[in-house]
């Protein structure tokens, strides 16, 4: 029995998606609940699984095609895995596929799936050098990725020879590669430009002595890991300090909706996470009710889901304040851009030892620059500075976080 393969029902904030990767091709058998296709939206990648044991009968929306919520993108034939043979008995369809794909590949002997071909082109990989594990020796996306990974581990020697034939330019010319933006990258670009064009954005800076936090971590790290099964990081301290500061300065925890200022009576803090696809901001709900261990576990969970592309829309919506850490990449100081419709964002940076004057003497201390970008339409400079000073004081004397002083 044939059934329709439909795109998932998108949330209200998502208008359409793009077919990213077909993990199964027509005629290929698949098991119930096995992943068959990924749909990329401007926020997350949604997975579509097989409704039952059977085969992919027909693909109506190819990779790169746009689809709407609930739109039919393919057809599925239910039945045992052995029923994939009838799909092979179509000589016309079988003969056409290699003819269409062979010219696009660098080798006429290699048969690549569209996703595999794209990945091979991006990494300058000769398909003929990749061993195909798919049906009829087809080179899959996973085959190309494994080849790229193994090449990197061996110094990249295997991937380099294919680079010369791929680039067909005259001597002295400089090659270029044009790649369309992914939906996530396009969405990020649009939001950042909107934030700069619509908000009266301003940034205030301060610096914090990280020695007290570092000493605290060193003293209790082993006990913390033994008790909670996770390491004590810096982000949990910053999250708790920001939570307490947001209680004292409600305007920083607010958002603008048209001509209205919305003050939130709760603290949902977004933590910016970098992935291969771009920057995403999952949200720690009700951070006031979370302990340091809860925050660390949730951040690790979000980080893992982000790398695997499994963050849900619900994980990334509704935050009231954002923290971003450029320090993990070595950034010494920067001006973070607002995450609309929030009115402020806190930027953490690299910890660097610097000579500081302490009680008339010079001491070498581990210092970090802090940056608070804020919407001046909503927040006055005085509030922004006081908010950042409150965070600085709590981090330099962690007992203040517990005592709320």
Q: Nutshell version of this structure?
A:
The chain is α+β, with helices and mostly antiparallel strands and 405 residues long. It has helices at 85-88, 91-101, 114-122, 141-153, 163-166, 183-198, 211-228, 235-248, 292-307, 381-396, 399-403, and strands at 2-6, 16-22, 29-30, 35-40, 45-49, 54-59, 66-68, 72-78, 201-209, 254-257, 260-263, 269-271, 273-275, 278-280, 283-284, 321-325, 344-348, 352-358, 361-375. It catalyses: N(6)-[(R)-dihydrolipoyl]-L-lysyl-[protein] + succinyl-CoA = N(6)-[(R)-S(8)-succinyldihydrolipoyl]-L-lysyl-[protein] + CoA.
Question: Share of helix among residues?
Answer: 25-40%
User: How far is the first residue's CA from the last residue's CA?
Assistant: 68 Å
The total of helices stands at 11
CATH level-four homologous superfamily name of the domain at 201-403: Chloramphenicol acetyltransferase-like domain
Shape: elongated
Spans of at least 5 consecutive residues with low confidence: 82-108, 156-167
Proportion of strand residues? 15-25%
Compressed to H and E, one letter per element, the order equals EEEEEEEEHHHHHHEHHEEEEEEHEEEEHH
**CATH class label of the domain at 201-403:** Alpha Beta
Gyration radius, in Å: 26 Å
- CATH architecture name of the domain at 201-403: 2-Layer Sandwich
